Amino acid sequence: MKYDHDVKMRLKRIEGQARGVLNMMEQEKHCKDVVSQLTAIRNAADRAIASIVAANLEKCILEDTGSSGASLDSSKYVKEAVDLLVKSR
Asked: What is the CATH classification number for the domain harbouring 38?
């Protein structure tokens, strides 16, 4: 699967945030601030996961409708996407 530029940029931002948290820990910053930044990292990762799953779902549906003239049963793709999202938590 080809990943778009936006998702890669999200992950680079997450990488920078993780380095920032390590610096905060080395500087012995307050745990409340560290946890706040870790929560931001988790939320950013969740958004990246959702973006990847959505793009994959769209790709699968478009490929299936393009390869067959029959009507599409998209419920299996939606179930797979939901399973991926649930598994990521």
From this structure: 1.20.58.1000
* Rg, C-alpha atoms of the chain: 18
This prediction has a pTM of: 0.76
pLDDT digits (tens, 9 = 90+) for 34-75: 999 999 999 999 999 988 888 888 887 777 777 655 556 677
Q: Dihedral sign, CA of 20, 21, 24, 26?
A: negative
Count of structural domains within the chain: 1
pLDDT digits (tens, 9 = 90+) for 26-41: 999 999 999 999 999 9
Q: Whole domain around residue 32: which residue ranges?
A: 5-88
